[in-house]
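Per reviewer request, we include the raw input and output of the structure prediction for the construct analysed in the revised manuscript.
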Amino acid sequence: MNEDFLFVLLKVIWQDLIEDVAYDSTKQNWQVLQTVIDENKHNKQVNQSLIIALNKCFYSSSKIIAERCREELIKKSTFIQYRGAKIYSPPQNDTDIRNLEQKIKFLEKQLKQTGKKHSNNQSFLILNQVEELVKQLFQSGYQSYHEDKDIDHKLFAEVEKDCNVDIYKTALRDDENGLRKQIFNGFLIEVESLEQLNRIFNARTYLILKQIRNKF
């Protein structure tokens, strides 16, 4: 995953955080957050952990949705066995199922690469990007990304590569269970146990508050 797209994922996560009512009470002032970032932006392990978390939540979220769409299409199809393979009907469902299966294989391969080392330059750039992002947010009073409509375009353009399947494209954009929601939840769960990243994103406090709020 290249640096530009990592920054897109960071924007997606921060935008969803600041738009959630449960996050209001977790916002830190800039000076506190700047101190935490300064302590860690030259820490290779912290940077690597953030890169891994971003990669993992993107690829795993995309895979979950692709698998769900594949199962839904199979349930809506009939099939015949031909030379040991299933051929689904109607034909468009067969094409879409094959495309989704290829997408799932690709995402599985990417997930297997997630824990491997990244370039030194990329490792140290990522927390610098976090610093730039949150500084913009504080200076704009948390309003800057409400108007950044390019984020969704870049996010969906990346995930839909080589998988032009209508049911998948619709599922990715679903407000309740779509890609943004899956990435958001998956990322916070990933960083909650990583103390330095948890301090930056306030993941643990947010998840506790969210759990309490969802009970009412």
